[in-house]
Write a structure and sequence with these properties.
By secondary structure, this protein is α/β, with parallel strands linked by helices. The protein folds into two domains: 189 residues, Rossmann fold (3-Layer(aba) Sandwich); 79 residues, Putative methyltransferase TM0872, insert domain (DNA polymerase, domain 1, Orthogonal Bundle), CATH 1.10.150. 40% of the residues lie in helices and 13% in strands. The protein has a seven-stranded mixed β-sheet, with helices on both faces. Helix 1 crosses helix 2, helix 8 crosses helix 9 and helix 11 packs parallel to helix 12. The longest helix has 15 residues. It is globular and about 60 Å long. The N terminus is likely disordered.
Length: 321
C-alpha cells in the first residue's frame, strides 16, 4: 500500500502551498477507518492525504476548480499510481453529472466548504478585496455569472436580499441602492468598485470586517453555495453505504444551520405520543445518528497557525447500518 507520509510538525503536516486544511485530526478520527471515502471539496488535497496516511484504502476527490485538481493530483500522484486515489472535476452538488461516480456508495463523505487559501491569495480570481482584483469569484466554469455580472445586472431587491441573507447585513437596502446608483454611471469591474460602494454606504470607517463579509456574500451568490448545499445534502446522505459517515466543515452561519437542521431531521423518529391513534407528525423514521452533539471547532494552537480555521465548524452524521 502506498501512503502519503506525514511531516514532523503535527500542526502543519497537511498544509501545502495551495491550502492549509482545517480540523484535519478530527476529520481523520471520523473518517479514517473507511475503505472508500469521497472528498467532495478536494482543494489542495490535504484532507485526502491525511486520510490515505491514516489507512483509508481509497479516496476519490472532486473539485469545481481545475487549479485545485492539478495541485492535489500532483501531490497525491504516488497514491494515484497505486490505485488508492483518483480525482475528477465536478461539483459535489451535482454528483450525477460525474460518470465515474455513478452507482458508487461511500463509507465516508467529506465536505470542507468555503474557499481555499490559494483562491483567496490569487488576486486574479477576484475572491478578495485586494486593490484592483477583478470581480470574478467563480469557483469553476459551471458558475454561470461572475460577481461583476451580478452586481451590474441584479435589481435592487435582489441585491438587498443577497447582502441581508448571505452577509447578515442589516443595512443591505442602503448598499443595494448605492450599487444601483453607481452602476448607472460606470459598471462594476474590480474590487475597488465594490469597496467604494460599501464605504459610500456605511462611511469611511468601514473596513476589512465589512469588506470580507460582503465580498463573501457576493461569492456565495456567484457559486450558488447555500442553495447548492441544501440540494446536495439528501443526495450525499443517499450515497452513503450502511454505517457510512457524512462529515461537513462549514464556515458560514447559513451553511452550518443547514447542516445542523438536516442532520437533526434525518435522526428523528415518529414524535407522536405512544397511544396516539394516528400519526400526525409525518411518519418520520430515523435514517441514522448525529455523531457530533456540538460542532467541533479548531483549537487555539490551530487557529494561531491557521487563522482561517477560526470560523470552521465540523458536524458529522452516520447512516444506520
Amino acid at each position: 500500500m502506498v501512503t502519503v507520509p506525514a511531516r514532523t510538525d503535527p500542526t502543519r503536516d497537511w498544509d501545502s502551498d495551495y491550502h492549509a486544511p482545517a480540523l484535519v485530526d478530527d476529520v481523520v478520527e471520523l473518517l479514517g477507518t473507511g475503505t472508500l471515502v469521497l472528498d467532495g471539496t478536494l482543494g489542495g488535497g490535504g484532507h485526502s492525504a491525511a486520510l490515505l496516511s491514516a489507512g483509508v484504502a481509497r479516496v476519490i476527490g472532486i473539485d469545481r476548480d481545475p487549479d485545485a485538481l492539478a495541485a492535489a493530483t500532483a501531490r497525491l500522484s504516488p497514491a494515484a499510481a497505486a490505485g488508492q486515489f483518483e480525482a475528477h472535476q465536478g461539483n459535489y452538488a451535482a454528483l450525477d453529472n460525474i460518470p465515474a461516480l455513478h452507482a458508487l456508495r461511500f463509507n465516508g463523505i467529506l465536505l470542507d466548504l468555503g474557499i481555499s487559501s490559494h483562491q483567496i491569495d490569487d488576486a486574479g480570481r477576484g475572491f478578495s478585496f485586494r486593490e484592483g482584483a477583478p470581480l470574478d469569484m467563480r469557483m469553476g466554469a459551471d458558475a454561470p455569472r461572475t460577481a461583476a455580472d451580478i452586481l451590474n445586472e441584479a435589481d435592487e431587491g435582489e441585491l438587498a436580499t443577497l447582502f441581508r441573507n448571505y452577509g447578515d447585513e442589516p443595512r443591505a437596502g442602503r448598499l443595494a441602492r448605492e450599487i444601483v446608483r453607481r452602476r448607472d454611471t460606470r459598471p462594476f469591474v474590480t474590487s475597488d468598485d465594490l469597496v467604494g460602494a460599501i464605504r459610500a454606504s456605511f462611511g469611511s470607517r468601514s473596513g476589512a470586517p465589512e469588506f470580507a463579509r460582503l465580498f463573501q456574500a457576493v461569492r456565495i451568490a456567484v457559486n450558488d453555495e447555500l442553495a447548492g448545499l441544501e440540494r446536495a445534502l439528501p443526495d450525499l446522505r443517499d450515497r452513503l453505504a450502511p454505517g457510512g459517515l457524512l462529515a461537513i466543515i462549514a464556515y458560514h452561519s447559513g451553511e452550518d444551520r443547514l447542516v445542523k437542521h438536516a442532520f437533526r431531521a434525518w435522526s428523528e423518529d415518529c414524535t407522536c405520543p405512544p397511544k396516539h391513534p394516528m400519526c400526525t407528525c409525518g411518519g418520520n423514521h430515523s435514517l441514522g445518528t448525529v455523531i457530533t452533539r456540538r460542532a467541533l471547532t479548531a483549537s487555539a494552537g490551530e487557529t494561531a497557525h491557521n487563522p482561517r480555521a477560526r470560523s470552521a465548524r465540523l458536524r458529522a452524521w452516520q447512516r444506520a447500518r
